[in-house]
Amino acid sequence: MGRKSLAVQRKEQILDAFERCVVRNGLDGVTIEQIANEADVMPSIIRHYIGNWNDLVRELVHRTIRRYDMMIDELSKASKGHDVVPRMLENMYPVTSEAADREKFVLGLLMTAKDRYPETKEMILDLLRKATTSMGEALHRTYPNTPKETCDQVAYSLICISITNDIAKNMGMDLRYTEGARVSAEALINFLETMNRARDDRL
Q1: What pTM was computed for the model?
Q2: For residue 170, what pLDDT is reported?
Q3: Is the pLDDT assigned to residue 149 strictly greater than 60?
Q4: CATH topology of domain 1-51
Q5: Residue 97: left (phi > 0), alpha (psi -120 to 50), or beta?
Q6: Most exposed among 17, 27, 48, 68, judged by the fewest C-beta atoms under 10 Å?
Q7: Any idea where the domains of the chain sit in the sequence?
Q8: Mean of the pLDDT values across residues 8-18?
């Protein structure tokens, strides 16, 4: 694979800086000048490679969604087997992954700003629908005797717990609550496993 073009490198540099600023100050507390300082570039560079403020938000949403799409596609291709579930939980509740935590925190902030940036609303909703469907299918492949609707409900619950947990964690919530979130997620998985086993025994 060849080297990334200067334009691609610049955009990534700027969006990385934007993401860090958003995590520190929230979406409303960030200016283009702050992003420029964080990225160590002139504000004119941001306008040249990305555009105005709305363009920045749109690009950040697109990048966040692309990253989640990659994870979802990997999950969709996973074969049936109980190794799928630990991988799913590790992706959603990583022990030490600052980047993954930051992405979910940013996604949560973008979700709360849907009224100010309506063009991002449908993109995020599509992502959540796709994630719920893919995770539900992966869970149903692992626990085939459990109703698909129940697997979808658990998938959506896991997503909600994960996003809410990372928003709270980045706001300074004690890490022991993250452990509690993981335990809650595992309890939902255990519920599916118990239901699957009970139905299997009746067959």
Answers
A1: 0.75
A2: 72
A3: yes
A4: Arc Repressor Mutant, subunit A (1.10.10)
A5: beta
A6: 48
A7: 1-51, 64-202
A8: 93
